[in-house]
Specification:
binds zinc ion; two-stranded antiparallel sheet; elongated; 4 helices; DNA Binding (I), subunit A
Length: 139
């Protein structure tokens, strides 16, 4: 199936440019470049052979070697072979996770700092905890 540039870009961005099975970085410009390590293809998460559709919700970027190895097997088992259960997050999802971690970290820091050092400790704890929470790997 041939995909338009818009659709390809949206598929590539779903995982922030990573193979959804092994998480290797794939380069947008190398779509269909089978011989390139950063080449990629569009994978039908639920394979067409199993009734998967061509709808965007079923399409994810996969490096050529993963896509060819996966064939008609399930996404779940293909990810499991690589030690993952979920697809990589998009850039927007990573940002949202960082913000949530910062809020949780800030809250925990405020409580801990407040218990140990009073109101100023709470403020310092909130800032420190927020910073630590924000820097946690969002994946
Ligand atoms: Zn891969």
């Amino acid at each position: 199936m041939a995909y338009g540039d818009d659709v390809l870009r949206q598929i590539h961005q779903k995982t922030d440019g990573r193979c959804h099975l092994c998480r290797r970085a794939v380069r947008y410009a190398l779509y269909g470049a089978y011989a390139e390590p950063a080449g990629w293809e569009v994978d039908h998460s639920n394979p067409r052979a199993r009734g998967g559709t061509d709808r965007k919700s079923n399409l994810l970027p996969a490096c050529c070697s993963c896509n060819r190895t996966k064939r008609a097997s399930s996404t779940r088992s293909a990810r499991k072979r690589n030690g993952f259960s979920r697809r990589p997050k998009s850039r927007g999802e990573k940002t949202a996770t960082r913000e949530k971690n910062a809020v949780v970290g800030g809250g925990l820091g405020a409580v801990a700092g407040g218990l140990m050092f009073g109101p100023l400790g709470a403020l310092a704890g909130a800032l420190l905890g927020g910073g630590i929470g924000h820097d946690i790997d969002p994946e």
